[in-house]
Amino acid sequence: MSKLIKQDDATLVTLAKNGNVSAFEKLIxxxxxxxxxxxxxxxxxxxxxxxxLQETALSAFKNLKKFKGKSAFSTxxxxxxxxxxxxxxxxxxxxxxxMTVISTDDDQKIYDTVDxxxxxxxxxxxxxxxxxxxxxxxxxxxxxxxxxxxEKYRTVFILKELEGKSIEEIAKILNLSPxxxxxxxxxxxxxxxxxxxxxxxxxx
Length: 204
Hints:
72% of the residues lie in helices and 5% in strands. By secondary structure, it is mainly alpha-helical.
């Protein structure tokens, strides 16, 4: 197994196609953090993100022989993960259990999904309660605004701004031209800015 650690993706794919289970496990291990991160950013739910990771691994295992190597393995498996994450997102029927009410000065209520880990970290900033509250609200507003973006803009924004993928990588994952990705990213940023400004104005 130690020898497999130094192998590149192409070599591991070849070994896995020939029945080397350890090689396939190494491939999954190499990308599981990125897959989980993508799924969690889209779903905001750790259990569902883990489900996406498992479904992605199973699908990749079943379809590995169909992978022709025309793109990088990372692009191929990321595309599988994204498809599963988006399917889960569409099936989410209720977010009440993860919703937080933010009361503004005029008692305007904004309902939003909260990243609980970041929320917990911010709550520990006891040195400046006002700053803590402001950061908490900004996280809530950002998450809510992202959830309100049309899917085609939200997906590109998450891949580029939160996952750090290049325009070229995103184009391959989504089967779109780099120009189309740039357009969606630009429009998504404008859309997101408008949504956030709306919430920020409400809280003033």
